[in-house]
Amino acid sequence: MASDNVSSNSAKAIRSSSVWRRYLPFLTWLPSYQRQDAVGDLLAGVIVAIMLIPQSMAYAMLAGLPPQAGLYASIVPLALYGLFGTSRTLAVGPVAMVSLLAATGLSQLAAPGEPAYIALALVLALLVGVMQFAMGVVRLGFLVNFLSHPVLSGFTSAAALVIAASQLKHLLGLKLSDTPSFFALMDQVIRQSPASNGIALALGLASIALLIYVRGPLDRQLSRRGVPGTLRTPMTKAGPLVVVGLSILLVWGFQLDHSAGIKIVGDIPTGLPPLTLPVIEWPSVSALLPTALTISLVGFMESISVAKSLASRRRQKVDANQELIALGLANLGAAATGGYPVTGGFSRSMVNFTTGANTGLASIITAGLVALTVLFLTPWLYYLPQATLAAIIIVAVASLIDVGALQRAWRYDKTDAASLVLTFGAVLAFGIETGIGVGVASALAFYLWRTTRPHMAIVGRVGESEHFRNVLRHEVTTIPHVLAIRMDESLYFANAYALEDVLTEAVADHPGVRHVVLICSAVNAIDSSALETLVHLIEDLRAAHVEFYLAEVKGPVMDRLQQAGFVDRLGKERIFLSTHQALQALGASSDAASTVNR
Amino acid sequence: MASDNVSSNSAKAIRSSSVWRRYLPFLTWLPSYQRQDAVGDLLAGVIVAIMLIPQSMAYAMLAGLPPQAGLYASIVPLALYGLFGTSRTLAVGPVAMVSLLAATGLSQLAAPGEPAYIALALVLALLVGVMQFAMGVVRLGFLVNFLSHPVLSGFTSAAALVIAASQLKHLLGLKLSDTPSFFALMDQVIRQSPASNGIALALGLASIALLIYVRGPLDRQLSRRGVPGTLRTPMTKAGPLVVVGLSILLVWGFQLDHSAGIKIVGDIPTGLPPLTLPVIEWPSVSALLPTALTISLVGFMESISVAKSLASRRRQKVDANQELIALGLANLGAAATGGYPVTGGFSRSMVNFTTGANTGLASIITAGLVALTVLFLTPWLYYLPQATLAAIIIVAVASLIDVGALQRAWRYDKTDAASLVLTFGAVLAFGIETGIGVGVASALAFYLWRTTRPHMAIVGRVGESEHFRNVLRHEVTTIPHVLAIRMDESLYFANAYALEDVLTEAVADHPGVRHVVLICSAVNAIDSSALETLVHLIEDLRAAHVEFYLAEVKGPVMDRLQQAGFVDRLGKERIFLSTHQALQALGASSDAASTVNR
């Protein structure tokens, strides 16, 4: 008894410690932190900060917010994720997709850049935080599975195009009106392109060229000259920072903001992020709810897929529900410190991973460096041209456009390809949020459509075995007066008619048949509508002197049939455990049976 | 060669004659019409006409149309269906549900009874006709399967309540404003009931009492006294006609229309239906499209379920697509002759069947009698009180309320019961059209929901057989280091995570397991998202020194896996035709295999 109590207490202790570890993942690495982890964390933290500082300002611009909103969103949220996230290498912060979604939602309620708009961005971050946190607590992490790969792929490619297109106005120095349609936007760009600012365009294109050079050819050249990876990565990943530095120098040196009308970032307040309290007013909250829901799901989806893919490379695990909680906390942090919605992004996470991040400390180091930036370095960013930020965004999202995905989807399944194309087209034509809705609906509709046209196979015995396979695909033997048909789908209201059609036709095609055995090994459910159809079908067959049997009915289905009185009605002796038993019984005593039944 | 040609020509002739018979079903009975069929057809035709004349006027009133619209809709459409329909006993014409749907749709565009309203009813009939005809031609008859039994049942019961409630204003002699909500309507009725017309109410209640007496107790009394069915049926089915006659006499005798403010039918034009040309204007057409679609589907559903059930009792067949064509022609006929949308109804079809209708000629006889009525008898209907028509409708729809359906659905499947209740509630709260949309969506959502939580079973060998069943349900033997799991659902994006969870957990629960066999006998498809999950899962298991195998993969699924390169990646030797073969191979050479794989 005493020892039982002890062991049960220690079991409790273990369980409660595992609960703590589940909700406070930093307990798994902080108490046992090793000095050898620190090297990787420090390097990764610094390099991600170098990428993040220009990117966060660029994405803030994409979201219609002042640059400091991006920087503020890159401090507290990162530290919170570092402590509460289950991925040790995910880099959280402003990302392109969420920024665009935020811009779409917010610009319906206020003009970009205005104080009301900035205040609504805090409300949006708060809503996303609450939603993600709540979804994590009630374990809705699985919901993200409703975004199928083809839908996500079509969505990502189209969103990348929409994001790149949204930056053309900065690149060309044009003023364009907002539109959710990619095509309408491109139409505007083409018609107004004669009014472009040539200097802005030159600056933007030069930035793009430099960014592409640094990320591709330079990396290869350095590699060929034997520069080790630990040195090469900081050099190539600093590309955006170099471009930012050079373009600031150019604009400042030639005073291009005055002489050529180049739009610059301007004043960024110096100092740590302010503590902000989102103003909760029901009309704006309810107007932002759909956007918040989309960001919660899409942001989580982007984040979890990166986190999972990185974790699996190091045989680590991420917990979808705890990830939601951590992202929720990060967004609540963004709402409280002048930021806007954040999530885990692809490119910075990859860099964090490859430069050796071992724990959440890397994220905390990044956050510290961004904090130092807003404390001391913002005056240096005054002359940063918007065209350069646009160039950074365009280069970042260009890699998201995946043309091969369509080809792969097409090869595997035409309906996968169709839902990819539908999502892609809907995002371009109607905008991000409608597009993803169309995508999810189309994927579900295609799935349902397939279930309404079930595959059915007439089967025969493989050799002398107890195994039965499709007569069209395998060398099998059949019994002339017995038709064994395998139904390859659950039976429900939308496909019951198909069962009726196929069975009736199969019996008509085999006039000698006296017995039909429906093999239910792949029938995972029979709903009441389908059951009614089945009852009618059995009556029809009996009228045509054909007897009906079932084989390999699964346990859960059998329970239902029993409850509904179907088993008593059909007769227990007409339901066989296996196809083998059914065909043995019917093959032997067929004539007697058919005579009796007449 | 020559004889080949001859036989091929005669085959062609047979085929073309069968095509003619398919699209012109009267060719199957008219050329070979027997005198003995005529007796049944004549009796059925007369009795249905006796029912139809008061009912058609009542349903026209329900649809917000003058009584002649109901009579006109009972002439040409019936004759057309009689010729083109595949059911020999279906009685087409105005029915309650379609009349209510028409009223809901039309009253959004014009005030009931006004010329514009009557003109729009023709447009609606035209649209329904075109839609049904087109759906039949492109063979969309299967679409109706998306209305599951529970949804249809909840819908029918709620619609019956809504229809009965809509007649309370006639019964009570009140003026109520239109509302799609049953609850709002009842609220109005209760609040205004003090202003009821007592005479109208007395007339209505007396009509209801008489109708119930004739249909129930009288029938039983006559039966007890030995009155034969052929005499009893005309007597009991003439109930509505008797009620109509008595109430006309009463109103005329006491001049109740003036002395007591009883609303009467009034002037009905004498003469055959006018030829009418619906006026096609895009705004009204587009506004009527949703209503037309709902009527097309709901009307077809009501009609085909009656037709199928009657046909199966006489071992006849109905063709869903030809039924659509015939109903489409009937509605086009209604549009061209001053009617409104029609379909095959339950009660008159039952009477048609039981009184002995043998062919479509019965319908044509009914049509002829209604034509004689509008030619000669309409002046006699002047004093017919609306309260009596309301009573006829209420008694007719009361039998549609099926309380037992909920209990049956609950017993069979909780989600069936849930979608029944949801549909019922949505029809009452938001009206007929929204309600049916909610119903279909909920049924599909429940189906999808179930597929996201697939049943999975660890299986073992049944005795010495080659058959494997769930270890929790059957006496089976298992091999300790081999885990055979049967997945009872197709794998797709929305349930791939569940496979991952269950398999990972099962392996964790069985620490001695070296081999996992996934039995795919119930996996009818694997989409690209699920395949990717599977690939990751296999890698994870391999990292934990557990090898993965597939068994009983179906042909169509195997083709896909091959195309996607999955088969080569997993290794062909890891895919077994049967569970038996898999367990024989793994049970024998397990230690060697697991050593090799480490």
From TrEMBL, chains A, B:
Residues 472-586 form the STAS domain. SUPFAM superfamilies: SpoIIaa-like (SSF52091). Gene3D superfamilies: STAS domain. It is found in: Membrane. The chain crosses the membrane at residues 42-62, 68-84, 91-111, 117-138, 150-168, 195-214, 235-254, 282-304, 324-342, 362-382, 389-410, 422-449. The keyword Manganese does not apply. It comes from the Bacteria. Pfam families: STAS, Sulfate_transp. One of its GO terms (biological process) is transmembrane transport. Keywords: Membrane, Transmembrane, Transmembrane helix. It is a multi-pass membrane protein. GO terms for cellular component: membrane. InterPro entries: SLC26A/SulP_dom, SLC26A/SulP_fam, STAS_dom, STAS_dom_sf. Its main location: membrane. PANTHER family: SULFATE TRANSPORTER. NCBIfam families: sulP (TIGR00815). This is Sulfate:proton symporter. It comes from Entotheonella factor.
